[in-house]
Amino acid sequence: MLKKIVVFASGTGSNFRKIKEFIDNKKIKGSIVLLISNNPKCGAVEFSKLNNIDYKIINDFRYKNEENKNYEYELVLKSYKTELILLAGFMKKIPDNIISIYKNKIMNIHPSMLPKYGGSGYYGMKVHREIIKNKENNTGATVHFVNEHYDKGPIIIQKKIKVQNSDTPKSLASRVLKVEHEIYPKAVKAFCSNKITIKDNQVKINE
Ligand code: GRF
How far, in Å, CA of 42 to CA of 47, rounded? Predict the structure, then answer.
């Protein structure tokens, strides 16, 4: 059976596209049933339209009441029988009701070697700028499960790269993104093939 995946994205959606590519090539036993975005004009929504993937816009403009908005996520995810949620550049906080219903079923990709350069305030180019400013030798990307503590859920896969002397935040961002495109599909593939086990908050990928 293909696992029903819902992607949350607010931006370009390159991770979303990469995972879709793996699914189309039958490398992942899953199916992207829905995209949820807060931004109707983003690349991820555009991609959904072009590929006939259902999408749903949930934002403060459409849902003025916070409680209604949080409940809407729940209703939509249930109606699609969601088995796995993938955060791929989603710029909004995931409400607590969703985190508790989908415990260890929400993954996120982060552009650093967590726990370093994680937590609120560390997102996008800010991470890469700090890495360069602090003259770090290494950086990388992390796929982790999402829990109630920002960027602190169990780590699924990480991959490190060297920071070059010539790197700028922009060049680093693009090399880290390549790593993201490598490790995110790997993590999703393992999940969809039921190869992930979690014990005492430690993730094991059973080969
Ligand atoms: C990535 O850098 C990811 O680490 C972060 O958001 C960005 C999303 O990029 N969480 P894209 O929209 O998938 O290209």
Answer: 9
DSSP 134: T
Tens of pLDDT, residue by residue over 157-186, are: 999 999 999 999 999 999 999 999 999 999
Amino acid at residue number 187: A
Distance CA 136, CA 50 (A): 40
Q: Closest ligand 1 atom, CA of 89?
A: 6
For residue 30, report the distance from its CA to the centre of ligand 1, in Å.
20
pTM above 0.85, yes or no: yes
**Separation of 166 CA from ligand 1 center, angstroms?**
23
* Amino acid letter, residue 157: I
Q: Which of 110, 128, 144, 181 is flagged as catalytic?
A: 110
User: Do 156 and 196 touch, CB atoms closer than 8 A?
Assistant: yes
* Ligand 1, atom 12: closest residue by C-alpha: 13
The 10 Å Cβ neighbour count of residue 50 is 8
3-class secondary-structure state, position 76 = helix
